[in-house]
Amino acid sequence: MGRSWSSPAGTGIYASVLFRPEPRVARLLTIAAGVAVAEAIEGVAGIGPVLKWPNDVYLGSGPQSGRKVAGILAEAGVSSGDPWVVIGFGINVLPVSFPHELALRATSLESELGRPVDRGELFAECLVRLAARYADLSADRCRHVVNAWKQRAAPTFGRPVAWVEEGAAHAGVVRGIDDEGGLLVDTEAGIVRVVSGELRWL
Description:
Structural class: alpha+beta
Shape: globular
Radius of gyration: 17 Å
Mean pLDDT: 90
CATH architecture of the largest domain: 2-Layer Sandwich
Order of helices and strands: EHHEEEEHHHHEEEEE
CATH superfamily of the largest domain: Bira Bifunctional Protein, Domain 2
Number of strands: 10
Helix content: 25-40%
Distance between the termini: 19 Å
Number of helices: 6
Strand order of the largest sheet: 1-5-4-3-2
């Protein structure tokens, strides 16, 4: 969509993790990864992030800036009949001069905290938390993951959004997510479930 990915060398964590999940687990992997990254940041840096559907991690309101500090991407496929999902995550750790178009929307952990954050420790904690949340999904504890996501995303509930689906424009107010990670939006036509498309937060 004409966007650029800014990841200056030596300033952040950029990693991809391969999973080979069952289909029921794959549906919630992006949600689980958001929870895991947020938990790792809180555990290592002592700052509680806010999650925003489907894949953004923010340092919320109050003393923090309300700007994006991490993002998550998922890519799925099938190899030799077996499904796979790659979860990629990026975390801005060290202070960095962002491009002009990102400066008002992005931040880093050290910029917010005013002190160093150990990237090695944070990366290790991300992997530990990812493994734990993946274990939750695999053991049918999906509701634990969804509830943890909702708790961290609560500040975004009640916000207006707009999106385009099959060429038609839609708008409404976010109410939460369902048990499969779909975004629930209150529209003039009632509650609509959004699972894909370009979503704009208004």
